[in-house]
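Lab channel / #folding
Pinned by the channel admin:
"Please post every new chain as: sequence first, then the structure tokens as a reply. Keep commentary short and put observations after the output so the thread stays searchable."

First post following the new format, from NK:
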Amino acid sequence: MTTPQQQPPRPYVPTKTLDTPYPLIDNDPHFRRVVRYARPSDYVAAGAIGVAGPATMLIWERIAPSHVGKGGFAPIMRLSGALGVIAGFLYFTERSTLRFYGFSENKREADMDMREMVDKVKKGEPLYGKSTLSPHMQGVASRNSRYSGVWLHVIPWFNFVNHEQHGVDTAKYYQQAEKELEAERNGS
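Reply from TO:
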């Protein structure tokens, strides 16, 4: 009988790889990366959605007045404004996240990812950051948030944990770093 300190290691089960039209960058991107890799068009789309709620309320008030007066209309505008901001933020993060998954065109993000990871390899830093969690808890966090961006409109669920389980072969970063370091040695 094994004691809790002597448990056998758990087998590693690789993540499922989906067939997508563009390359997978990360199947569980950290929230900071999702925001950092966002495109200007994501900000524009989020702003448009954020403004759509209050704008719709104003148009409806012009077409079919509610006659509640300024005291009754202001809370509705605040509520529609808050819902618009939340909806815009969720749309913003979903657009960025789906590019990480390879569901939409992601050449810019793939280049940014390669540059970021190769720079980390050259500096000797961990690719996906340092974590204070145990490897088991990192795996739990990863399994709970992997591909969560697909259902972001149902349950907003983001990855806030640094871990090593991202569904991509990290050897490509080390190979590219070796090529660049070799070119620097030969060129300098």
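NK: The chain is about 55% helix and 0% strand.
TO: also worth noting, The helical segments are 31-36, 40-63, 69-101, 107-123, 135-145, 171-187.
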